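INTERNAL AUDIT FORM
Audit reference: QA-55
Scope: verify that the stored structure record matches its stored sequence.
Auditor: D.O.
Record contents follow.
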Amino acid sequence: MLALAVPALGALIAEPLFLLADSAIVGRLGTTALAGLGLAAAILGAVVYLFVFLAYGTTASVARRLGAGDLRAALAQGVDGMWLALGLGLATAVLLLVAAPALVGAFGPTPAVAEQSVIYLRASVPGLPAMLLLLAATGVLRGLQDTRTPLVVYTTGAAVNAVLNLLLVHGLGPVPQLGLAGSGLGTALTQIGMAVAVAVVVVRGARRHHASLRPDLAGILASARSGVPLLVRTLALRAAILIATWAATDKGEVSLAAHQVVVTLWSLLALALDAIAIAAQTLTGRSLGAGDVAGTRATTALMVRWGWWSGAVLGAVLLVVRTWLGPLFVDDPAVWQAMAAALVVAAVGQPLCGYVFVLDGVLIGAGDGRYLATTGVIQVLLYAPLAVAVVAFAPSGTVGLVWAWVSWTGYMLARAVFLGVRARGTAWMVTGAVRT
């Protein structure tokens, strides 16, 4: 578990470092630019994360075939997932380019913030197909029990992204100052390079084991069908995140700017905890593929304990450093105050997050997508009234932002209840190379 989780931890932490670097660099342009980045990042994150099944579903299916002893079929399944990702990425890029103003306008920001958000989204569009291809290729490597290659690629990408964004946003020498557009373009270029690097590794493995690299329509359609439940689950999760952003937007520009940084920090900790969930996906898929039910149960119990304690440690660290973080991102003291208050709530909820992410990973690895989809929709329906109450009754400013984060913790509690009930049963423990 540690051999998988530790490298996955490094790769997952590298992902929000992209947005942390963007936030720190763009924050020097002012509160309006940072708020614009926050809204655009929420929308782009929602769009990309809709297709996270390309990573999660591929990880589970590849790991099952690996556990059953059929490496060639595992690689062929992975290649089909990558072709699906590339097609979806191209189509989504065109849609986002056209729909960017409407998507931003749906949140009701000020005209200045809306303008900045649209600029960032459209500058990011060239990297969207690469983002989805990277998801699928990373899922293949995780399913093959290789989390070290993604670690190298993601950490290198985070460093390159920071340099590119600094150059393109503020300009240096012959490089023009592009403002927020430079941030989107720098991230897009970095994502393209990362996708190529990971895809090359998968292609080499497929050639070595004589797996076909050509698009297989039947295999692509099978990957798409198996991804539908995870897509629904992801839609529900992103809907909850967008609802939280809507609640923060209602509390004013300062609250939205603070919310952007708090969400980014929360995502950093969440993805750190998700390293154990990645191990859960790969180990669960492989052990169920090999028919080892007892081993699956024992590994699940171990990873749940790791999730609780890791969340407690990360939450304690966040509580200690929360008041020092504001000046790293923006020069506005009002944003600092709002951030520090909301981070208290985010820190207290970290142990619960660790439990949720681990069990989510276990059930994804088991291919239990239908349960995750159904309960995911129910959880959003339970959370939405809490967010509406925050918008209706909580005051603007720091207090309103804190209540928005309290309601988000309630959403995580609902997820914990549904996941815990399922994990205690046996319906999800289906064995074999292919879940039927």
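Auditor finding: record pair retrieved intact. DSSP finds 15 helices and no strands in the chain.
Action required: none
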